[in-house]
Amino acid sequence: MSEVLYLKLNQNTEVHERDVFLGQLGSIWCRDKAIESKCKALKVINIQANKKERYVLSVMDLIKQMEKLDNRVEINNIGETDCIIDYQPNLKPSPVWDWLKAAAVCIVAFFGAAFAIMTFNNDGDVSNVFGHLYYQVMGVQAGGPTILEFTYSIGLPLGIIVFFNHFSKAALSKDPTPIEVQMRTYETDVNTTLIQNASREESGIDVS
Question: Which regions span the lipid bilayer (predicted)?
Fold first, then answer.
């Protein structure tokens, strides 16, 4: 009598050990707990190179290995058809290097955002618009910076904070921020490309 086993693979799994087991790649459930335990402990790959690398595994190959392990098992895949193993070796952390990278990102983001805001203000001729608006309301020409520039300077960063919905550890709501959405979209696109490239390499098809 066969035992039904449900397999739900994650699209991407980060591992730090060279021996990778099936239980690390997703969720496994079977009424027969002995079969479930054996499948979770099934070694699916042994990574030889001690460097960062990504490996793509097909669920078909995993099913073959599981059936060899126990021919009574009937596998029902309810997750991904291909999964990515992202191997990250356990390297000695370098706090100084991490701080330098964070500082470099902050500097680039700061000056890049400042340049974008300045070019936008210049293209939209914001100072001239403020001058006309001040004259229409007050009836006199502005002799320098006015309340409009002051409120604009305060409203701009406040608007950015509200839009991105995240400042330090405080969030205005539990919704994902636009940056988080774009990061997840980018991550999904990268995973899809890696899987498609692996399939093309196996079939001998080149994107060119």
Answer: 99-120, 140-164
User: Hey, which residues does 75 pair with through a beta bridge?
Assistant: 5
Which residues 6+ apart lie within 8 Å of 59 measured at CB? 7, 9, 77, 79, 80, 81, 82, 83
Which amino acid is located at 62 in the chain? Answer: L
pLDDT in tens, 160-200: 877 776 665 666 667 777 788 888 999 989 988 988 888 77
Q: Which amino acid is residue 191, in one-letter code?
A: N
The enclosing H or E element of 54 equals strand 53-58
Residue 24 near residue 96 (C-beta atoms within 8 A): no
Q: Which of 9, 1, 45 is nearest to 29 (CA)?
A: 9
